[in-house]
Amino acid sequence: MATTGQNIDTLFLEERRYPPSAEFAAQANAQPSIYEEDFEAFWAREGTERVSWFEPFTKLYEWELPYAKWYLGGKLNVSYNCVDRHVEAGLGTRVAYHWEGEPEGDRREITYADLQKEVVAFANALKELGVKKGTAVAIYMGMIPELPIAMLACTRLGAPHTVVFGGFSADSLSGRVNDMGCEVVITQDEAWRRGTTVALKKIADEAMKDSPGIKKCLVVRRTGNEVPMTEGRDHWYHDVRGSDDPASCPPEPMDAEDLLFLMYTSGTTAKPKGIAHTTGGYLVGVSSTHRYIFDIKPEQDVFWCAADVGWITGHSYIVYGPLCNGATSVLYEGTPDYPGKDRWWSIIERYGVTILYTAPTAIRAHMKWGPEYAQQHDLSSLRLLGSVGEPINPEAWIWYREHIGGDRTPIVDTWWQTETGMILITPLPGVTTTKPGSATKPFPGVDAGVFDERGNEVGPGGGGYLVLKRPWPAMLRGIFGDDARYRETYWSKYDNVYLAGDGARIDQDGDFWLLGRVDDVMNISGHRISTIEVESALVDHPDVAEAAVCSRKDATTGEAIVAYVTLKGSAEPSTAKLAELRDHVAKKIGAIAKPANIVFTPELPKTRSGKIMRRLLRDVAENRPLGDTTTLADAAVVSEIQSRAESESSDDS
Length: 653
Ligand code: WTA
Hints:
By secondary structure, the chain is an alpha/beta fold. Among the domains are: 113-252, Rossmann fold; 541-647, ANL, C-terminal domain (GMP Synthetase, Chain A, domain 3, 2-Layer Sandwich), CATH 3.30.300. Helices cover 32% and strands 22% of the residues. The chain has 20 helices and 29 strands. Helix 4 (78-91) crosses helix 6, helix 5 packs across helix 6 and helix 7 crosses helix 8. The structure holds 5'-O-[(S)-ethoxy(hydroxy)phosphoryl]adenosine (WTA). Residues 265, 311-313, 388-391, 413-418, 439, 500-502, 514, 517, 523, 528 line the site of 5'-O-[(S)-ethoxy(hydroxy)phosphoryl]adenosine. 5'-O-[(S)-ethoxy(hydroxy)phosphoryl]adenosine is lined by residues 265, 311-313, 388-391, 413-418, 439, 500-502, 514, 517, 523, 528.
């Protein structure tokens, strides 16, 4: 298990309790009785109340292990649910997105009526380029309004999408494009990042060289700088933008189980997995959780999920959940500290944000900068805070509540995954007494547990593997094109239950404490990266003979990547080589996967059967006394590495 026993014990000494206030409880969307509702009755009701169907579903769910289907027989369209029906209900003037660009003063207010026009015009452009029901589309963009618009346009036509985070490299993009069989890439000229530009179109061009299946590339203008365009393949969006009359592009009725999107995520091999989400269950799952967990009152709340749309959090809680609920959200293009460290707080003040949802890594960064930046702004509009992405340490939880929440707002620490599609373990504000560091209880209708090695339920206080014991509407429908890997990854350790890959403990009150990953997946700033992915990228460099990667704890990013590298005889360790290797990883995967530290070593510690002992390397990386080394082939290797690690200079750019 990745987390040490000592850590678990510290968490368990956490005795602070935060019951909901009577005022919050009285007005909350979720009342205590929600936990008493029968699982099937709950999801059947949510299925009809949250979503509008062109044809009603005839069966709630079907569970043929390990594949579930939900809302069978139902026909619906996601863009209709997220946009058109709100306009039809007379809510066209409600703001869907307050968009704030990174350059100061760059703002757009997009009402639901505007959004309908934009989505229709975009869908017509895609049609013009040959996109139809079933055409796979890759989206490689920054946080501009055209990103959710492009996603919704795809859903309008019934074209499944995969959004690739704008920080990923050309190799990462083409890998995903090829795996999904995408025919179209939607991108933008460049993205803004901390006052400089990221050349998204150029990176997409690189990727398309390795993706012969791409027929068309649609480019949205953002910065206005010149970018290369390939005649016949590439088209500016403003040149092919179509009619914005909704009648010109009616939403395609889709089956509840039609593929909605793939989201690639790291597993324990070098190849990311295409996690498949379908239409009906996903939309019900994200809108239902959004409504109860964030206590959304669409007529008055301003919701801000400060994630990137390129991750599952952005899909579910910037785009599909909030729009399905007719909510008003903030969409912000930039980083928290540009041009100043108070940027986020100025946004909250400007738009009167009532609910903020972010990650522990961001909270810790703000903690490090100090509370004075938040104090420069009026944050009194906030009434609820959320956290996601990794276990939140109690100090960060308390800081968040005191300095951002005015010691008044409830905090919902929400546990979920790309695979789960929707939040599964979480407090319900107004119902749950929260404890800093605990994600508390399974969402209504969700059956979670903690198992030991042999598959026995672990009692209160014991640690083990987090499992899910029955299906939920937004659950993954498999790994795209890889049934064997799907079964192996999630369903092989135990019979009939889903293995999440996280360690957990349940306390005497039945509250869950998440303890981090139990596999070779690291969590860097809330982003999943596998050790093997980084190792493969390093070994891809011509000078590298062998590499082993592990993570160490880091005060800001949660975990940081440490790489142990053995160079080929012809190459010499040097500071320049170190920088070169880090850049090579960024080029192969993306900047988020750059090792924080690289230690050059003539040999890696291996078992007699030749397996690299990552656990030992982790101990070295964290300066811990070494665990059991009896299986080590050459014990001298470790002390050698230890002395090199001590003299190694780290840089964390
Ligand atoms: C971790 C992000 C503790 C966990 C939505 C999970 C968390 C992985 C929490 C999924 C939380 C997410 N407490 N750990 N509240 N939320 N995690 O797929 O290890 O990017 O397996 O989805 O993040 O990351 P993913």
